[in-house]
Amino acid sequence: METFLKQNYQNFMIFFTFFLLWFSIQFGKVVEDSVAFVLIISIGVLHGANDLLILSKGEKKRFRLVKYFIVYLSIIVLCILIYLLSSFLAIILFVLLSSYHFGEEYFGEKVVVNKIFNSMYYLAYGVFIFSMLFYSSTSQVDEIMKELANRTFTTFQIELALLLSLSIFLVSNLYLFLLKRNTAEMLLKEVFYLGLLFVVFQTSSLILGFAIYFIFWHSIPSIIHQVEFISGSLTKKSVAHYIKKAFIYWGISVVGLITLYQMVPQIKLFSTLIFVVLFAVTAPHTWVMHKMKS
Q1: CA dist 35 to 46, 123, 183, 205, 221, Å?
Q2: Residue 244 buriedness (CB in 10 A; 0-12 / 13-18 / 19+)
Q3: CB of 42 within 8 A of CB of 254?
Q4: Closest by CA position to 256, among listed 268, 245, 248
Q5: Using CA atoms, how far apart are residues 252 and 38, in angstroms rounded to an integer?
Q6: Which DSSP state fits 40?
Q7: For 161-173, what is each residue's pLDDT tens digit?
Q8: H or E segment at 163?
Q9: From the CB of residue 264, how many other CB atoms can be counted at a distance below 10 Å?
Q10: How far apart are CA 278 and CA 44, in angstroms?
Q11: Separation CA 87–CA 110 (nearest Å)
């Protein structure tokens, strides 16, 4: 199973990306968003539900586990405080943290130069993904941003982020090519993938476009890496063990999400709540994944 998934997942990912591209053309925004919410609430939330299990892996000292747990909760509390003090700043931090996390998960095993270069490369890639998404769905971004922060990103800010991140990403790849850490074939493949994602973002709704990348390009590969880290191998038994361990935390998260949506009248868009919850868990999850990979 391990060899099969590693060799075939990329084909699976591309297939479902094209399938959902076709799906977005056939159906309207309501259907698209409904599918996106199901994907995010199921697989998306699941992929971050085993953080504490990952922190405890191989750690026998109780006081260190307690320290990790306190740090994890403190990061969540800090995120909530930042959002309460400045929701706009919280959104920017969410985008930057998610950008780095997306880049680290996608390129963590492909791009290894040094900490500064790696971080810049991961961040540039992730910011470019978000910039393409925002550029393709400006009106929907405005709607969510106004509900979250009573302000929004300007077209100039989005286009500037798009151009800067693309420039840094391309220059970094040229540097990798000169170092012989990258090949022309690998670069062309990544350019094709980015072009495919841009078409997907242009065609689908904001939430479905985000879900396609978040689930198939990020969450499922992350789950595969987590299962390997926790169990040492990728088998049906280890995947079942991962889901079983994550189920309680996943259930609590979903119930809390739906309850919060029902109890807070200020939140009119479910997509807004999704982004608020993702921000609260992205920072500690990024920290856990960074520790796992290092």
Answers
A1: 16, 28, 37, 11, 20
A2: exposed
A3: no
A4: 248
A5: 16
A6: I
A7: 999 999 999 999 9
A8: helix 155-178
A9: 12
A10: 9
A11: 35
CA 227 to chain centroid: 17
Tokens of 201: 């973002």
> Each residue of 267-279: pLDDT tens digit?
556 666 677 677 7
**Is pLDDT larger for residue 5 or for residue 226?**
226
- For residues 33 and 232, the answer to whether their CB atoms sit within 8 Å is no
Hunting for tokens 């306190």 — which residue is that? 70
Residue 14 is encoded by which pair of tokens? 């591309």
Residue with tokens 């997942």: 9
Give exposure, 207-234, as e/b (b: 16+ Cβ within 10 Å): bbbbbbbbbbbbbbbbbbbbbebbeeeb
DSSP reduced 3-state for 48:
coil
Task: Give residue 66's pLDDT.
Answer: 82
Encoded tokens for 50? 């085993």
C-alpha distances in Å from residue 226, one per residue of 9, 55, 145, 238: 15, 11, 32, 10
Cβ burial of 112 (10 Å; 0-12, 13-18, 19+) is exposed
| Residues 46 and 218 sit within 8 Å (Cβ to Cβ) | no
Q: Determine the average pLDDT of the residues in 13-21.
A: 91
How many CB atoms lie under 10 A from the CB of residue 29? Answer: 15
Query: How many residues appear in the chain?
Result: 294
Instruction: Provide the greatest CA pair distance for the chain.
Output: 56
Give the Cα separation of 263 and 159 in Å (integer): 37
Q: Are 90 and 76 in contact (CB under 8 A)?
A: no
C-beta of residue 187 within 8 angstroms of C-beta of residue 173: yes
Spatial separation of the C-alpha atoms in residues 114 and 176, rounded to whole Å: 12
**What 3-state class would DSSP assign to 287?**
helix
